[in-house]
Amino acid sequence: MEFGIVELSRLQFAATALFHFLFVPLTLGLSIIVAIMETVYVMTDRPIWRQMTKFWGSLFGINFALGVATGITMEFQFGMNWAYYSHYVGDIFGAPLALEGMMAFFMEATFVGLWFFGWQKLSARAHLIVAWLVAIGTNFSALWILIANGWMQYPVGAEFNPMTMRMELTSFAEVIFNPVAQAKFVHTVSAGYVVAAVFVLGVSAWYLLKGRHIELARRSIAVASAFGLAAALSVVVLGDESGYDTGQNQKMKMAAIEAMWRTEPAPASFTLFGFPDREARETHYAIHIPYVMGLIGTRSLDKAIPGFDELEKESERRIRDGITAYDLLMTIQETKQTGVDPAVLADFRSRSADLGYALLLKRYVDDPRQASEAQILQAANDTIPTVWPVFWAFRIMVGLGMGFIATMAFFFWRASFRQMDFPRWSLWLAVFMIPAPWIAAEMGWIVAEFGRQPWTVDGVLPTALSVSQLGITEVALTLAGFCIFYSVLFIIEIKLMLKYIRKGPQDDIAATDDWFADHRDHLSAGQFSREGTK
């Protein structure tokens, strides 16, 4: 592959997005866990729950601040490296991003300040409301971002205007209720809850191994395991919904996930393991599980799932139809000053859905109408994404997800039915598992974004046309700068997190100790009274 401006721009976006996504899932999950802990504190008035709330809240605050710093550049990058994309679809894509800033980010930023500085200023119930508003705002922010991303995956509620040469919004309701966007949202936030649960579980397990902050750690494990088990199970259920939507609306991505070179007759099997070979169009040493893919992709046992052979032919047909649409578009542009023939305009509108496929030819020829037969076939072949990253990322994600369910179920069982007696091996397992949900989350990002190539907006705008007119040196320098800056932020995050974890909870220790001493006195008095009665 030629390493040019498009590849460098893609690499820069991938690097900034992957860095940013190191912070987002923990923010989503910790906001809910902290709100749950504060709810228990307000209900019971036990200082230990206040201590837990403030300790995990401090770690949430560190992650939130650095997540904001890494997220700011994401939106600016569209105008910097993806200028034609911003011009072509900015009317649609910009709307949810603007709402995210006005309705969600300002909300969470405001209430985060109230939460941290309002402990002595607000009543317990008012402060609890603030905690839940922080959690709602954080998750609401993710909603708008994923609505924007979901539109890139499955563009609805918009159409191309041949007079302005841009995509224009026709139904904001369709954009908001886009089934792909909604499935992505619930799946992503559930994955974020798993990240936070594993983080809390691992840190708490470390405290138990060190014999420190025992009461905080035991209760935190109880909360994390219950919350994490529910979240991990929901990821599976919601992931199934996301898989079904992919099978219906992004058939090429589904074929890449499964390395399905040929159409799979019903009932389609799932490839558990194998080595995809694009040149040979074969998956070597494949191990199949019958029926599973049919249930995921079609929710039936009597529907075939199209493979690359069928989908490539469909892309070729759409490219040829798109060339006709492109020819009509050029006619409209040439005559728009003198008056466009209504019949030409109507004919274009009936074919405009395939215009994006003609634009794939721009990679090889300036005028798609002049494309050779070989270039048309090559453009059709380009609609097949690079298979092995999508294939393996999906399996790593699913495998880790099954591991999270087993781990959370074990700790929930020990916390609920074995008096919080945790074997040392399980505590070490929890500690070493801390990075695993981030790996799973990044793999999910790769499946979603890499599987969409060669499109920036699926079926509408090819990635090769979306970039800004910049030099390779400019993009390479900004890429290096972003990587250095983000690496510094990541190091700061790790150091701050480790510092405060080693330091442990500092607030309300005296009050917590007094409460437990008084509680033990009551227990001892009760036990003595029962023994005297005997």
Description:
Its EC number is 1.10.3.-. Keywords: Cell inner membrane, Cell membrane, Electron transport, Heme, Iron, Membrane, Metal-binding, Oxidoreductase, Transmembrane, Transmembrane helix, Transport. With 534 residues, the protein is mostly helical. The protein contains 20 helices and six strands. A hairpin with a 3-residue loop joins β5 and β6. α1 runs antiparallel to α3. The longest helix is centred in the middle third of the chain and has 36 residues. It starts with a helix and ends with a helix. The C terminus is likely disordered.
Features of this protein?
534 residues, two-stranded antiparallel ribbon, disordered C terminus, globular
Structural class: mainly alpha
Strand order, sheet with most strands = 1-2
User: What is the gyration radius calculated from CA atoms?
Assistant: 27 Å
Distance between the termini: 85 Å
Could you give a quick summary of the protein structure above?
With 534 residues, the chain is mostly helical. It contains 20 helices and six strands. The chain starts with a helix and ends with a helix.
Write the topology of this structure.
Layout (H helix, E strand, L loop, with lengths): L4 H16 L3 H21 L2 H35 L1 H35 L6 H30 L4 E4 L4 E4 L2 H5 L2 H32 L3 H36 L1 H8 L11 E8 L4 E8 L2 H6 L10 H28 L6 H10 L3 H5 L13 H10 L4 H31 L6 H9 L3 H15 L4 E3 L3 E2 H4 L5 H32 L5 H25 L1
Helix pairs in contact: 1-3, 1-19, 2-3, 2-5, 2-7, 3-4, 3-19, 4-5, 5-7, 7-8, 7-16, 7-17, 8-15, 9-15, 11-12, 11-14, 15-17
